Amino acid sequence: MSTSDEDLLAYADELLPVDAAAQLEARLRDDAALRERLQNVLDQRDSGALSVGEIWRHERLSCPTRSELGLYLMRALERQRADYVSFHLKTVRCAYCEATFAELTAAAAELDDNPQDSRRREQLFASSAGLLKNDRTQGAQ
Ligand SMILES: [Zn+2]
After folding, report:
1. Residue 141 and residue 123: Cα distance in Å, rounded?
2. pLDDT (tens digit, 9 = 90+) per residue, 38-95?
3. Which of 57, 75, 109, 125 could form a disulfide with 70 if both were Cys (CB 3.0 to 4.6 A apart)?
């Protein structure tokens, strides 16, 4: 298994799936060169040269948008696109999208506890498109 800079950053930001993070952690213990790479990546990131969000956007142009993930969660995404999102999450296991999807799932579950809040849920997902726009312009994660 080769480890990319994105993987190292995702690990540092706790965006990796648990099993992948554990694997990487074990390799970091044994591999001084890998530890040095992690340190370099973090130094670059801290100096503002990189953010994990930027890297993922540059390297993973195939990522679905946040609002697509929301629609996928509600099973409201058109079939072909839903298949793609499913592939991206379950087969590619993109850490960035997994984290976003987990966050949306948690938000939706919270609203499910409170049925009269279904309007709030609609607003949550409707505002996802707006959040995404902000995300792009500010370059935040
Ligand atoms: Zn992704």
Report:
1. 21
2. 998 888 877 766 665 665 555 555 788 899 999 999 999 999 899 889 888 887 788 8
3. 125
| Cα 141 to Cα 137: distance, rounded to the nearest angstrom | 11
* Centroid of ligand 1 to alpha carbon of 1 (angstroms): 19
Q: Which amino acid is at 68?
A: E
Rounded to an integer, what distance in angstroms lies between the CA atom of residue 69 and that of residue 131? 13
- The residue with tokens 């694997």 is 23
How many angstroms is it from 139 CA to the middle of ligand 1?
Answer: 16
Spacing, Cα 97 to ligand 1 middle (Å): 4
Q: What pLDDT is stored for residue 31 in this prediction?
A: 94
Helix (H, G, I), strand (E, B) or coil at 126: helix
Please provide residue 93's backbone torsions phi and psi, each rounded to the nearest 5 degrees: 50, 50
- Determine contact, residues 11/27, Cβ cutoff 8 Å: no
Using DSSP's 3-state secondary structure scheme, residue 98 falls into helix
Q: Please indicate, yes or no, whether the overall pTM of this predicted structure exceeds 0.70.
A: no
